[in-house]
Design brief:
This protein is mainly α and about 70 residues long. It contains 4 helices and no strands.
């Protein structure tokens, strides 16, 4: 399953769900190295997840992608 292949870990939760620019940048860097980032992004969009970085995108970025 794709969730077992993510680059982030439970220890990264404070980074992945922060709104601080420095932590958002770090979260996006983690996602950039993730082999399943696209699947994670698709999941977040399809489930309308409103918080956190998923697939290297913020909630606002995901909303914009979903409206394309």
């Amino acid at each position: 399953m794709w969730i077992d292949q993510v680059a982030c870990t439970p220890a990264d939760e404070h980074i992945m769900f922060s709104e601080l620019r420095s932590k958002v940048a770090r979260a996006k860097a983690i996602c950039a190295s993730c082999p399943v980032a696209a699947k994670c992004l698709d999941f977040a969009i399809s489930e309308n997840i409103e918080f956190g970085i998923f697939g290297g995108h913020t909630p606002d970025e995901r909303k914009a992608l979903a409206n394309v």
